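Chapter review. Work through the record for diphosphomevalonate decarboxylase before attempting the end-of-chapter questions.
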Amino acid sequence: MYAAARAYTNIALIKYWGKKDEQLILPMNSSLSLTLDAFYTETSVEPLQGLHEDEVIMAGAPLSGAPAAKISRFMDLVREKSRNHMFARIVTRNHVPVASGFASSASGFAALSAAAARAYGLDCSGTALSRLARRGSGSASRSIYGGFVKWMKGTDDASSYAVPVDPANWPICLLAVAVNKQPKKISSREGMRRTVKTSSFYPVWIKEAERDLARIEPAIREHDLDMIGKIAEANALKMHAAMLAAEPPFTYWEEGTMTVMRRAVHLREQGIPCYFTMDAGPNVKLLCSEADVDRILEDLSEFFPPESLTVARPGPGVDYLENPIQ
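Structure tokens for diphosphomevalonate decarboxylase:
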């Protein structure tokens, strides 16, 4: 009754922004992402007799407050599904900045879902794990798989889950630029709520997101980096435009965010395919070819220190670990 798992973050190229059911975490639109090898979470779950509540250890220290309560609520769902009501000792380590737009919740709940499902004897197939992970964090549904992954919005709990689209076993890269690793002032959940309820652009965003998804899938199958990048970049801008039209308006962008965006445009003008995307945070990810990584790094190094630049490649799906999490 012990299990440990590793899951990797993903970056959405067609964004998920807004829920139609907050309890089940059913999205307003389908989305598509690329799983990354550079950022990941490792988590172990061990149900134990004698515990009166879940014991959560993160980065070697006990976790408390709202983050611990969120994990315990998720574990209540696992206990309900398994009919095993034992509390668990949960040990987790994040190798990714938390709450700053690097999808730490995606890798976090994907790893927790895999470890908890195995420890409590639940179905560990991809579809079942994706549905379970979705209940912790919507984007976690996509981190069950490697490569390009589509999360189908569905209409209920059973039909909303992710499926693999393409293994991304071709020379595509993503360069993550850490503009600011501090937790953001407006959470993704609050940002989504405000946009859905008040933005006059939101209905248009939903239509455009579904249109972008239909256009990007053929480009992925054809390994057309330019088309993938153009669609992803435009999709990100449309999502952030919907936030600017909210009441009150808000943005996650900072001065460094704009700098990276301008450099991407400059690089394209120099004949280097390079396209930006941003989630709910100031940090920017650049989609490019493996062959152009060094030239892009050289350009960005004039504006950002080396520790702010991380090269990520397509990552694998969730995996189980033999050794305990330390």
